[in-house]
Amino acid sequence: MPFEAVGLSQEVRNKLDRLQKLPRVRLQACNLALRRQGRADKPLLPGIEKVTNDFIAMAGYGAQSYTRIPVD
Q1: In terms of CB atoms within 10 Å, which end of the chain has fewer, N or C?
Q2: Mean pLDDT (whole number) for 27-41
Q3: CA–CA separation, 44 vs 50, rounded Å?
Q4: Which residues, 6+ apart, have CB-to-CB distance to 59 below 8 Å?
């Protein structure tokens, strides 16, 4: 569902903007999840990288000693 439809667009975009400005932070979107939502061909917000499978990407980062930090 588009963010605009649930009234969260500006709040979500503001949080993403703040995250993107942090050092060493990369934002990624899982193409598998985008396909399931029918949004694989839709443009993403600037600065968000589309990855084939986020689970595999996360495992790769974990192997390089990176960690995932949940953000609410």
Answers
A1: C
A2: 88
A3: 8
A4: none
Structure-derived torsion over alpha carbons of residues 14, 8, 28, 52, reported in degrees to the nearest 10: -160
Question: Is the Cβ–Cβ distance between 10 and 45 less than 8 Å?
Answer: no
- Give bridge partners of residue 50 from the DSSP assignment: 29
User: What is the pLDDT, as a whole number, of residue 6?
Assistant: 62
Residue 47 is which amino acid? G
Check: pTM over 0.85? Answer yes or no: no
CB atoms within 10 A of CB 68: 8
**DSSP 3-state assignment of 29?**
strand
Task: Give the span between the Cα atoms of 27 and 40, in whole angstroms.
Answer: 16
Six-digit token pair at 20? 């993107």
Tell me, what amino acid is at 46?
A: P
